[in-house]
Amino acid sequence: MNKSLRPAVIAGNWKMNKTPAEASALIAELRPLVADAGCDVVVCVPFVDLPAALEAVKGSNIRVGAQNCHWEKSGAFTGEISAPMLREMGVSYVVIGHSERRQYFGETDATVNRRVRAALDEGLTVILCVGELERERELGITAEVVATQVKVALSGVKAEELSRIIIAYEPVWAIGTGKTATAAQANEVCALIRGVVASLYCDKCAGGMTIQYGGSMNAGNAEELLAQPDVDGGLIGGASLKAKDFSVIVAAASK
Ligand code: PEP
User: Fold this and answer.
1) Alpha carbon 117 to chain centroid distance?
2) Which of 114, 139, 169, 198 has its CA 20 to 30 A from that of 30?
3) Of 22, 88, 98, 161, which residue is the catalytic one?
4) Closest by alpha carbon to 107, among 147, 152, 57?
5) Across residues 40-56, what is the average pLDDT?
6) In 40-63, which positions are buried (b, 16+ CB within 10 angstroms) versus exposed (e)?
7) Where are the alpha helices (DSSP H) in the chain?
8) Whole-angstrom Cα Rg for the chain
9) How far is the CA of 45 from the centre of ligand 1 (A)?
10) Residue located nearest, by CA, to atom 3 of ligand 1
11) Is 98 a catalytic residue?
């Protein structure tokens, strides 16, 4: 399927940055800069910023996402947030399986799968993060690692639910490091992911899926990365905290 038929999505992952007041201010600055975007624009904010962000995007083309959700609807899980809680607030996207959650909070492919399932059950759109460590790339096992992450994460997901899954290919060595994958590396792995989805479901399902690249994407390198045939958008960390830089990336995805 032609890339132009897939929704391009630029999502900001604010990580643990911005207080609610700062979130309102950043969104207010961003709104006019992305008002004419030719792609979907999402900001994934810390949980406590969600009410302020949802208020600040009202009447705009910016959508709000969370950065995680638990697999149970409720219960004795101190410090966690459930998918029904996010849905009731009006949140539409949730990032699941980010490498920082895998690295610092014990997230595994199995728990990623349970969280994906829970988010889909509540009607949320999932931004599912996958990607290899530097050592895994050096060992030449990127394809196996990423294919396994995708297969486990999508286990139990029905073909008709794939329209609410975005996969973000994020090589761990490129996140927050300033080391970006080359456009060819990014495209190669995004194409590989599309192939895995085709083998699990069907060619049409894979052809319609939005697959993002993430890892030190910025205003200077976005255009080349986003021009790749299998790169349909970006998950942006650091550069999403500056309205101007983020809007340049949005403009590059809108071409
Ligand atoms: C991310 O947090 O998903 C990310 C890609 O971060 P950065 O853009 O800062 O590398």
Assistant:
1) 16
2) 169
3) 98
4) 152
5) 98
6) bbbbbbbbebbebbbebbeeeebb
7) 20-34, 50-56, 83-89, 99-104, 109-121, 134-138, 142-153, 183-200, 203-207, 222-226, 243-253
8) 17
9) 13
10) 237
11) yes
Residue minimizing CA distance to atom 2 of ligand 1: 237
Average pLDDT rounded to a whole number, residues 21-28? 98
99 lines ligand 1 (CB under 6 A): no
| From 43, 103, 216, 218, mutation site for ligand 1 pocket: most ligand atoms within 8 A of C-beta | 216
Asked if residue 2 has pLDDT above 90, the reply is no
* Residue closest to 153 by CA, chosen among 166, 137, 142, 136: 166
122: exposed, middle or buried (C-beta count within 10 Å: 0-12, 13-18, 19+)? middle
Q: Is the pLDDT of residue 199 over 80?
A: yes
Ligand 1 centroid–CA 100 distance in Å is 10
- Angle 233-92-132 from CA coordinates, rounded to 5°: 45
